[in-house]
Amino acid sequence: MARLLKGAPVAAAISAELAERVKKLRERGVVPTLATVRLGERPADVAYERGAGKRCEKLGIAVQRYVLPEDCSREALLSCIREINEREEIHGCLMFRPLPDPEAEREVCALLNPEKDMDGITRGALGDVFTGGKGSFPPSTAQACMEILDFYGYQVRSARVTVIGASLVIGRPVGAMLLNRCATLTMCHIDTVDTAAHARNAEILISAAGCAGLVTREYVSPGQVVLDVGINQDQDGNICGDVCFDEVEPVVEAITPVPGGVGTVTSAVLAKHVVEAAERVMKRELVVK
Ligand code: NAD
């Protein structure tokens, strides 16, 4: 039976450390504040907004929710981002993506103040991820994968890691973060020939394809650590990952569940980013004074 890499203990460890930091900020009159921006009522966005909001508020982080109609004008969306940029009491922003209009999404990514970018959507943040810079915040889900590996004690340095999925949201940034930590990386995507062979060869397999049932017995080998990032719906409408859990779990050394794995850690990482953003602002203000 594989070791089950649950997200809850990882998130709890992150949260425990944050509670103390939030207390210190509040004692100095700073309430760390996150703005979330959602267009429409997509169930995955609503669920993430609820989960992340609950975690933040439990930790003493305020959450301001901006909800716009799915068909809102580009100008309405951009003016919402401008407002978030301008409001000093807001330290961080999370926008649920993808947006229905990819051009509008590009404009938002260009407009958002990089210091308030909690999820690595701006060019500056992605640049830092790829150059190993420390100035901004990486995409929370990519960071969550690294937190899970570290928490459960799996060494990244020199390890053969295969990532399935090459989006800018998860696959590419987590690949860059693994490379920054000296992993030996293989990236697979929809046009990769024989993804199963690349996956089998890995010591750590990260699947972020968004494809239910993709990772079957054929994709894995004994001794592997498998992180399932996918959040999909099965034929019965239940949440599931990319991995056929029942086939894969008996073979591998360790595996994250879905739900209750990577997604649980993602919201804790988001909270950590907001606290850090608030601390940076507070430190800057202390220097100015
Ligand atoms: P995306 O559609 O933007 O990218 C998917 C990537 O996977 C692409 O690079 C594509 O080429 C590749 N891919 C798709 N099918 C493939 C296949 N059969 N074989 C090999 N490669 C394949 O998706 P995304 O935004 O990167 O999200 C991926 C998944 O992660 C989704 O299920 C999403 O819901 C989930 N997600 C999870 C979290 C979390 O916190 N756990 C957060 C965000 C997204």
Automatic annotation (TrEMBL):
<keyword id="KW-0378">Hydrolase</keyword>
<keyword id="KW-0658">Purine biosynthesis</keyword>
<comment type="subunit">
    <text>Homodimer.</text>
</comment>
<dbReference type="GO" id="GO:0035999">
    <property type="term" value="P:tetrahydrofolate interconversion"/>
</dbReference>
<feature type="binding site">
    <location>
        <begin position="165"/>
        <end position="167"/>
    </location>
    <ligand>
        <name>NADP(+)</name>
    </ligand>
</feature>
<dbReference type="GO" id="GO:0000105">
    <property type="term" value="P:L-histidine biosynthetic process"/>
</dbReference>
<keyword id="KW-0554">One-carbon metabolism</keyword>
<dbReference type="InterPro" id="IPR020631">
    <property type="entry name" value="THF_DH/CycHdrlase_NAD-bd_dom"/>
</dbReference>
<dbReference type="InterPro" id="IPR036291">
    <property type="entry name" value="NAD(P)-bd_dom_sf"/>
</dbReference>
<dbReference type="GO" id="GO:0004477">
    <property type="term" value="F:methenyltetrahydrofolate cyclohydrolase activity"/>
</dbReference>
<dbReference type="GO" id="GO:0006164">
    <property type="term" value="P:purine nucleotide biosynthetic process"/>
</dbReference>
<comment type="function">
    <text>Catalyzes the oxidation of 5,10-methylenetetrahydrofolate to 5,10-methenyltetrahydrofolate and then the hydrolysis of 5,10-methenyltetrahydrofolate to 10-formyltetrahydrofolate.</text>
</comment>
<dbReference type="GO" id="GO:0005829">
    <property type="term" value="C:cytosol"/>
</dbReference>
<feature type="binding site">
    <location>
        <position position="190"/>
    </location>
    <ligand>
        <name>NADP(+)</name>
    </ligand>
</feature>
<dbReference type="Pfam" id="PF00763">
    <property type="entry name" value="THF_DHG_CYH"/>
</dbReference>
<keyword id="KW-0028">Amino-acid biosynthesis</keyword>
<dbReference type="GO" id="GO:0009086">
    <property type="term" value="P:methionine biosynthetic process"/>
</dbReference>
<comment type="pathway">
    <text>One-carbon metabolism; tetrahydrofolate interconversion.</text>
</comment>
<dbReference type="InterPro" id="IPR020630">
    <property type="entry name" value="THF_DH/CycHdrlase_cat_dom"/>
</dbReference>
<keyword id="KW-0521">NADP</keyword>
<keyword id="KW-0368">Histidine biosynthesis</keyword>
<keyword id="KW-0560">Oxidoreductase</keyword>
<keyword id="KW-0486">Methionine biosynthesis</keyword>
<feature type="domain" description="Tetrahydrofolate dehydrogenase/cyclohydrolase catalytic">
    <location>
        <begin position="5"/>
        <end position="119"/>
    </location>
</feature>
<protein>
    <recommendedName>
        <fullName>Bifunctional protein FolD</fullName>
        <ecNumber>1.5.1.5</ecNumber>
        <ecNumber>3.5.4.9</ecNumber>
    </recommendedName>
</protein>
<comment type="similarity">
    <text>Belongs to the tetrahydrofolate dehydrogenase/cyclohydrolase family.</text>
</comment>
<feature type="domain" description="Tetrahydrofolate dehydrogenase/cyclohydrolase NAD(P)-binding">
    <location>
        <begin position="139"/>
        <end position="280"/>
    </location>
</feature>
<keyword id="KW-0511">Multifunctional enzyme</keyword>
<dbReference type="InterPro" id="IPR000672">
    <property type="entry name" value="THF_DH/CycHdrlase"/>
</dbReference>
<dbReference type="Pfam" id="PF02882">
    <property type="entry name" value="THF_DHG_CYH_C"/>
</dbReference>
<feature type="binding site">
    <location>
        <position position="231"/>
    </location>
    <ligand>
        <name>NADP(+)</name>
    </ligand>
</feature>
<dbReference type="GO" id="GO:0004488">
    <property type="term" value="F:methylenetetrahydrofolate dehydrogenase (NADP+) activity"/>
</dbReference>
<dbReference type="InterPro" id="IPR046346">
    <property type="entry name" value="Aminoacid_DH-like_N_sf"/>
</dbReference>
